Amino acid sequence: MNNIQKLADILNADAILLNIDTHEASYLDNEPADPNNRMINFLMANIKILPNHQYQSFNSHSAHVLTCKITSNLIICFSFDYSDATSASNELMALHSLSNLKSISQIIYTLYNNQEAPDTDVIITQFSNQKIVKSETAQPFDANIFFNTETDIIKAIIYSRNDQLASALERLSHLKLIGERFANNNFIRGEKDTLISYIAVLNRAIVQWGYPVDLAFQLHNELVQEIELTPQFLDFFQVLREITWHYFKVIQNYRVINFLPLEQRIHQYIKEHITGNITLDDIAESLNASKKNLNPAFKKEYHLTITQFIRQTKIDTAKELLIASNFTLVEIANLLSFSTTSYFVKTFKEVTHVTPNYFRQHFFDRHLHL
Q1: 192: left (phi > 0), else alpha (psi -120 to 50), else beta?
Q2: Dist CA 101 CA 262 (whole Å)
């Protein structure tokens, strides 16, 4: 179970072990991000349908749960909570995790059973609340409903209204955003264009609210690049929800960041800008702090220099990409702003003691240092 928990940590998920026979469930981590057992309660309410498929993804307006049946009576569940403002995820890989649910499920199965995982598809199930799963059917696209819902989403993001955002996303999930006009042309292109247009609207809204233009365009460009590099979307609406919650958390964090201690603001800044070429000058200017005070404050709290933390965070992000995406090493190096692919490989090996290719190919090995 230790390796499965390490995988969950890499993917920024909570891992839950569920026994179908005894109706018992527990987090593998002693300190999960869900202290109120909200997700366990949801799983127990739907326990009858969990064993129906080898791999399943239960999706909602603010989260999704990936389940993998590892034995006839045991299920491992990975819970991803998009609305968690304290999440350690830098969000770069969220879309790719959603696009590679089958691969992640097979990794979970293999880590537990030490044998090849079944080659079956992930079954997607929508749920409308935290009590019971409901099957949803998309309604024909209605421009007025879409415009009004999109307006409510923007207001919820700007004013940090969690419940209102969840409600608006619930309504949006019923609309058929990708119409038949793409059926005979390029459906994947239609999904990508719809997401990119949606991001442009959210970006314009947060800039008008007062979010810095340079940061907004950086966010826009990162998400668009991520979308364009994704070969397909297993669950389009879940990708849209993840993007929406990411904007929600960006504005929420921006609103409170000036009230945090300097070391926490540095930590937050690095997490949010990990794809860029981060310098001390950038951090000092963005946080309106003295450059000479940055490292002493940060090292006292985290016992690392800022440069060491940036390097470690980039490699942690690369690990997730190696597991949850099909990106080449060149693409990963470019995404994380390494000067060359060879420098990325060199840095990865210095931190993990293995090459990126070895990590990707031998992730199943129990002796591999995750």
Answers
A1: alpha
A2: 37
Give the residue from 5, 107, 6, 90 showing the smallest Cα distance to 55: 107
Q: How does 131-157 read in b/e, with b if 16+ C-beta sit within 10 Å?
A: eebeeeeeeeeeeeeeeebbebbbebb
The residue whose two tokens read 């207001």 is 155
Look up tokens 């990936």; give the residue. Answer: 66
- How many residues does this entry show for the chain? 370
Q: Report how far residue 255's alpha carbon sits from residue 247's, in angstroms, rounded to the nearest whole number.
A: 12
The Cα–Cα gap between 283 and 290 comes to 9
For residues 21 and 88, give the distance between their C-alpha atoms in angstroms, rounded to a whole number: 34
> 270: alpha, beta or left, given left = phi > 0 and alpha = psi -120 to 50?
alpha
- pLDDT (tens digit, 9 = 90+) per residue, 325-334? 778 999 999 9
Q: Whole-angstrom Cα distance, residue 247 to residue 202?
A: 8
E-assigned strand segments in the chain: 14-19, 24-27, 55-59, 63-69, 74-81, 122-126
Tell me, rounded to whole angstroms, the distance of Cα 5 from its chain centroid: 17
Q: Is 234 helix (H, G, I), strand (E, B) or coil?
A: coil
Provide the total of helices (H) and of strands (E) in the chain, helices listed first: 16, 6
| Residues 248, 62 contacting (CB under 8 angstroms) | no
pTM: 0.62
Average pLDDT over residues 44-67: 82
Q: Which of 293, 296, 292 is nearest to 304 (CA)?
A: 296
On the question of pLDDT at 168 being above 50, the answer is yes
And the tokens for 156? Answer: 């919820």
Q: CA quadruple 293, 295, 299, 301: dihedral positive or negative?
A: positive
pLDDT at 83: 63
| Rounded Cα distance, 93 and 99, in Å | 10
Kindly state the tokens that stand for 352: 């993990």
Mean pLDDT of the region 180-197: 75
Question: Average pLDDT over the chain, rounded to whole?
Answer: 83
Beta bridge partners of 80: 64
Residue 175 DSSP label: B
